[in-house]
């Protein structure tokens, strides 16, 4: 029978890879959600920029998953000697491409947030042209065909940066806050990766020079993870279960990476001593 420490380690590995598979499933769920949203808006892909704007969450999540796998390889699977060779350079190149993709997706989140800011009250003179070709905003990235007579009930606004989209003011405000949270969350994750990149390079440098890499960036990471956790809590209270679930999975996944880096640094410090 395996010792308890080995059993716990094996269980942790199973849980870790189960989380990675759950994140892969989230890529599919986000793709379905964004395809349905684009269909409701009668939106089509006309350029590379429109691909990133329409499918920003799917692209973002897929690029993050590739990035996570390469961080796993670099901080847990591969040896330091391998990381200093051709394999290490290929990993860093791929990670750079993923980070560029994530930055573009972050721009997509900002574009979505900015697009929701433009609105104007529904002009009664427009009532004659309202038909099922128009859409109603129900939530962020959620639209449905117009099937009610909006001119006879409630207050409505027209989204200036969308084609034939109406929204109730309170729902529009909720969507704006959610879009802002998406952008802040995406920007915070980019900063997390940049900080981790500095830390990984620090550990490799420590191994080569025989000195400890230090830990002056921990307060920055703590602040960033607090922002990410706050975003997850906000999504939970807003009833955005998929976003909440995805955020919790990512926080766990990067807890794994942080654990890998901490163990790696301890080995470096022991070797230096």
How would you characterize this protein structure?
Helix content is 71%, strand content 7%. With 273 residues, it is α+β, with helices and mostly antiparallel strands. It has one domain (4-272). The chain has a five-stranded mixed beta sheet with strand order 1-4-5-2-3. The longest helix has 41 residues, at 169-209. Residues 208-214 have low confidence and may be disordered.
Instruction: Write down the secondary-structure element order.
Output: HHHHHEEEEEHHH
By helix and strand content, what is the structural category? alpha+beta
Low-pLDDT regions: 208-214
- Using only C-alpha atoms, the radius of gyration works out to 23 Å
Shape: elongated
Main sheet summary? 5 strands, mixed
Q: What is the spatial order of strands in the main beta sheet?
A: 1-4-5-2-3
Structural domain tally? 1
Strand elements, count = 5
Number of helices: 8
Mean pLDDT: 81
Strand content: 5-15%
Brief synopsis:
This protein is α+β, with helices and mostly antiparallel strands and 273 residues long. 71% of the residues lie in helices and 7% in strands.
Which helices and strands, and how do they pair?
Layout: H1 4-40, H2 48-54, H3 56-77, H4 80-83, H5 86-117, E1 119-121, E2 135-139, E3 142-145, E4 157-159, E5 165-167, H6 169-209, H7 218-237, H8 241-272
Parallel strand pairs: 2-5
Antiparallel strand pairs: 1-4, 2-3, 4-5
Key terms:
273 residues; five-stranded mixed beta sheet; 71% helix
């Amino acid at each position: 029978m395996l010792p308890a420490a080995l059993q716990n380690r094996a269980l942790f590995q199973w849980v870790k890879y189960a989380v990675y598979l759950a994140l892969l499933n989230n890529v599919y769920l986000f793709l379905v959600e964004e395809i349905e949203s684009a269909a409701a808006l009668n939106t089509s892909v006309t350029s590379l920029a429109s691909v990133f704007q329409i499918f920003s969450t799917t692209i973002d999540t897929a690029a993050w998953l590739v990035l996570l796998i390469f961080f796993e390889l670099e901080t847990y699977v591969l040896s330091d000697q391998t990381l200093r060779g051709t394999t290490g350079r290929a990993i860093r190149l791929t990670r750079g491409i993923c980070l560029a993709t994530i930055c573009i997706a972050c721009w997509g989140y900002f574009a979505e947030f900015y697009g929701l800011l433009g609105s104007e009250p529904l002009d009664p003179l427009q009532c004659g042209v309202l038909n099922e070709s128009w859409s109603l905003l129900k939530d962020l990235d959620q639209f449905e065909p117009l099937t009610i007579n909006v001119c006879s009930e409630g207050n409505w606004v027209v989204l200036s940066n969308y084609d034939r989209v109406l929204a109730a003011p309170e729902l529009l405000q909720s969507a704006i806050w959610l879009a802002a949270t998406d952008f802040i969350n995406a920007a915070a994750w980019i900063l997390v990766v940049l900080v981790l990149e500095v830390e990984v390079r620090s550990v490799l440098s420590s191994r080569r020079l025989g000195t400890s890499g230090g830990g002056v960036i921990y307060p920055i990471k703590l602040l960033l993870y607090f922002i990410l956790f706050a975003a997850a809590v906000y999504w939970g209270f807003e009833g955005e279960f998929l976003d909440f679930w995805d955020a919790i999975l990512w926080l766990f996944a990067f807890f794994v990476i942080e654990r890998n880096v901490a163990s790696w640094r301890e080995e470096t410090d022991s070797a230096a001593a």
